[in-house]
Design a protein that fits this description.
Layout lengths: L1 E9 L4 H14 L3 E8 L7 E9 L13 E4 L2 H7 L8 E5 L7 H10 L4 E5 L1 H8 L5 H13 L4 H11 L2 H17 L1
Parallel strand pairs: 1-4, 4-5, 5-6
Antiparallel strand pairs: 1-3, 2-3
């Protein structure tokens, strides 16, 4: 197993946390994992992205060059990154905040023949759960459910280690909602 993930959105959307949770979950399962964050100077509201690699064997560089999966949480990241990085297996889009462009989708499909585009109203779903702050967990759960890159039980365990009780409850509620409804 070898997966390269590129995750992008704006500061405050939890894209860096999403990547960290994936890495910690993979490590808990005994897999090799790397995490390489990048964010603008303004942080909240500016661009933020991270590169994650998960493998059954040693990883020599944290830099993602040919992602197998890509997650885009907002429109500026959609425009900025989708022609730079072409995911080969999965593209997860937060369609609450992204208006898809036909020319970009056609470009992607012409360069990645087996690409599956997974559209998730992550921000809208998170709002239904009680706060848009869990849109990253909605997307994370969708990724895990769709790809099995890590086990959902590993994600739950990691969340219980890194979040306070109050924060943990709403995040677990988001996982339960996605597992049952998305």
């Amino acid at each position: 197993m070898y997966e390269e993930l590129f995750i992008a959105g704006s500061g405050g959307q939890g894209v860096l946390t999403l990547g960290k949770i994936l890495v910690y979950s993979a490590m808990e399962e005994g897999k090799f994992a790397t995490y390489y964050p990048s964010y603008g100077a303004e942080v909240r509201g500016g661009t933020a992205n991270c590169m994650v690699k998960i493998s059954d064997s040693f990883i020599y560089s944290p830099v993602v060059e040919e992602p197998t999966m890509m997650t885009i949480m907002n429109m500026p990241s959609y425009i900025k990154f989708l022609k730079k990085f072409i995911p080969q297996k999965f593209l997860f889009l937060n369609t609450t905040l992204i208006e898809e462009k036909t020319e970009i989708i056609e470009f992607l499909k012409s360069h990645a023949k087996n690409l599956e585009i997974v559209r998730v109203n992550a921000t809208e779903i998170a709002n239904k759960i009680g706060t848009t702050l869990v849109s990253n967990i909605v997307m994370l759960t969708t990724i895990v459910k769709r790809t099995n890159v890590v086990k959902i039980d590993s994600v739950r365990n990691i969340l219980s280690k890194i979040f306070s009780k109050k924060t943990l409850d709403i995040n677990l509620k988001a996982i339960d909602y996605v597992m049952a409804n998305v």
